[in-house]
Structures are given as C-alpha cells and as structure tokens.
Amino acid sequence: MPILSRSQNRDLGLELFGANRRELGELAMQERQARETPERKALGNELRLDEELGTGVQAQIEAGVRAKARNGLFETCANPGCGSGWLHLWRSRMAPVFEGGWNCSAACTAARVQAAVRRELEGRILSQESHQHRVPLGLVMLEQGWITSGQLRQALDAQRQARAGRLGYWLICKQGVREQLVTRALGLQWSCPVLPLEFHDAEALAVLMPRLFVDAFGALPLRVAAGKLIYLGFEDRLDPVLALAIGRMSGLRIESGLVQESLFAPAHARMLNAKFPPVELIEAGSEPAAAHAFTKAIERARPVNSRLVRVHDCLWLRMWLRPQSGAMPDRDSTQDMICSIGTH
C-alpha cells in the first residue's frame, strides 16, 4: 500500500470531514439543547424576548428606576412649582418634611407654607361661626319634666338680679336640682353625649394639644381609644372648630361631649399643670409674615413631618422631630408654634 505524503493526508481529511462538518455541528447543538434544564430554557426565552422588545423593555425598566427613586433614596421635592429638586444632592431626603412632602430648599418650603397659610385663612372666612339657635336650657329641662315652671322662673330671677352665673348654676344652688340632670340637659341642648372621667391621665394626654388651647377654649382631652379615637370633653358647650383642628393634626377621629361640672373643674386644673410639648407663641402683622415665621421654624428644626391647621384666629404648626411609633406623639420630639395674625 503506498504511503501517502503529509499534504495528501491533509487533503484526505478535508475531503472526508469537510462535507460532514455542518452535520456534526448540528448534532452538537442538539446535544447541548437536550442537556439544558427547563430553567435555562426559560431564561433563554426571556433573554430572546427582551431582545425582541428592545426599547420598550428598556423604557419600562427606566420608568421603574425613576419610580423607585421618587419613593426611595432620591425623593423628589413636594413643591409643584419646583424645577430643580433633583439638583440638591447635598440636602437630606429625610427632612424637612411639611404635610407629608419633602422640600428640596428653603424657597420650596416657603412656597408650600405660604399655600398652607392661605388655605387655612381662606377656610376661616368661609366658615365664620354663625349663631345657632338652640333650645334654651330651661325649656329643655321643663320639657323633660326635670324642673317645674316655678323653679325655672325663680332661677331666672336670681340670675337676673345677680347679673352673673349660668342658669344651671342657679337651678342647682337655689332650686336643688341635681347636677347630673343639668349636665344631661346640656347634652340634649348640644346633641352630644355626657362623657365619663374615669382613669383620666393628664400627663399622658398633654401631648395632644398645646396648653394654650386647653386653657383658652376650656378643652379637656379625656382618653384615646384603640389608637383611633380621641374623646374630648367640655364643661358647658362644645367647640367644633378646636375639635376639627385636633382631628386634622392627630389624624384621629374626635368624639366631643360634655363632662359634669364638679368633675370637669379639678380634672381641668390637673391638665393645666401637666407637662406639655414646648411651644413658641408669635404674632404676625400679615399673612406673608406668618408664612415667613413658619418657614424659618421648619428650616431650623428640620422635622421629619410637620402640619399646619387653624384654630379660630390662630394658626397652629406642629413639628415632629423624629418618626412617631404610635397614636400618641412623643413629647420630647414634638414642637409647637402658634401664630396669631393681626387684622387691619
């Protein structure tokens, strides 16, 4: 048998295997596919799908990143008129926060506070307390059969001669009417419940509102039920404006009612002696001046949240310096600011 040269061997190899190379490659590919797990196949399908979707998938990914940036580390400014919040990378995204939104600069804080002050003062104009004609207390008690017409007439005469004191006082002192009946009649007059005073903890409840409001408006926080409801007591008449403000500030529902006078007075005195959160009292000559003072306070304290509400002719700003863990705010991390605005 003739011996082939090296070049002849190479040519023979090309001739034998060159034609079958495509077939061998296809067999190798089939073998690899057979070895693939279902997971690897699914991943490959996803990758091919991503390639087919192209820019659509990329756009969705970028949108998701932007959404996470807004809700996470890269919080955006809550001022609707801000156009440069993302530039302030040096400013903490945790504070200052006003009414649930982070402010990227003092200018944005001022803009949002000005809008809130305007909102509250416009609300004062729209909700001027008009006199509500209620059935007189004496007629309520007379209708219920709790007093006689003679008792009512004598109590009214005593009140007229003294030119002082409420009718209920004269009915109790001069006519021997039970105090519980007078309180029940007041509840009927104001269409509200008579609230009990058991287990009243003045120190724990003092964080719900500034001491000024307890004193000036005769309010008495009674208790917080299930972290959702505040019972707010008054002596002889309700204050719906104050109740609304406390509800907005705390985020809890308010149940207002009357407390028997002999129980209310000592509890109210204990409440006034409790320790309240620190408060700053200011007067502003105009709406812009009030907004400027509130802005300075927020920028200085840098709270994790703050809120502004109106209480009659006052504006009440509360700042929480640390995150709150329950319905009752932490006294040591809560600051109040009350501003009265002069009228021209």
Care to describe what's here?
The chain has 344 residues and is α/β, with parallel strands linked by helices. The chain has three domains: 75-131 and 277-344, no CATH class; 137-190; 202-272, 2-Layer Sandwich (GMP Synthetase, Chain A, domain 3), CATH 3.30.300. Helix content is 50%, strand content 15%. The protein contains 14 helices and nine strands. The chain has helices at residues 6-17, 21-35, 38-53, 55-71, 106-126, 137-144, 149-162, 167-175, 179-190, 202-205, 211-216, 240-250, 261-272, 287-301; strands spanning 97-98, 101-102, 220-225, 229-234, 253-258, 279-284, 305-311, 314-320, 334-341. The strands form three sheets. Strands 6-9-8-7 form a four-stranded mixed beta sheet. A three-stranded mixed beta sheet has the order 3-4-5. Strand 3 (220-225) and strand 4 (229-234) form a beta hairpin. Helix 5 (106-126) crosses helix 14 and helix 7 (149-162) crosses helix 8 (167-175). The chain is elongated. The model is unreliable at 6-21 and 37-73 (pLDDT under 50).
Helices and strands in order:
Blueprint: H1 6-17, H2 21-35, H3 38-53, H4 55-71, E1 97-98, E2 101-102, H5 106-126, H6 137-144, H7 149-162, H8 167-175, H9 179-190, H10 202-205, H11 211-216, E3 220-225, E4 229-234, H12 240-250, E5 253-258, H13 261-272, E6 279-284, H14 287-301, E7 305-311, E8 314-320, E9 334-341
Parallel strand pairs: 4-5, 6-9
Antiparallel strand pairs: 1-2, 3-4, 7-8, 8-9
Helix pairs in contact: 5-14, 7-8
